[in-house]
Amino acid sequence: MVGKIQRLGFLLPTTRLDDEAYSFSVPGIGKLVSAIKKTRSLILNTLKRTKYKEMHEQQLKKAKLKHSPFQLEFHLTDMEGCGLIRRTKVTSGVLVALVDK
């Protein structure tokens, strides 16, 4: 079983000589993290260019997310959870704003 998991790339043998140990790995995670970081910076730069550092969510949805396979909602939820943005319901929809640090 361990051999099969190794072949799939989820377990990597360590270089310790005294015993046999493994490290857990997630193949392809680098591309995912890179795509998320690029999309985050795209959204942050878009918000920074506005006068009050805020924008309606509908306006943000018009932007093309060329680096990410995920929808804008995923990235906004992620960024809100990280404390980078704040979403506020207003009468005209949802307002996305940069968090003051």
From TrEMBL:
**Is Heme found in the keyword set?**
no
Q: Which GO terms describe its molecular function?
A: kinase activity
Q: Which keywords does this chain's UniProt record carry?
A: Kinase, Transferase
Keyword Iron-sulfur belongs to the record? no
Name of the protein this chain belongs to:
Serine/threonine-protein kinase 19
Q: Which family does it belong to?
A: Belongs to the STK19 family.
Coiled-coil residue spans: none
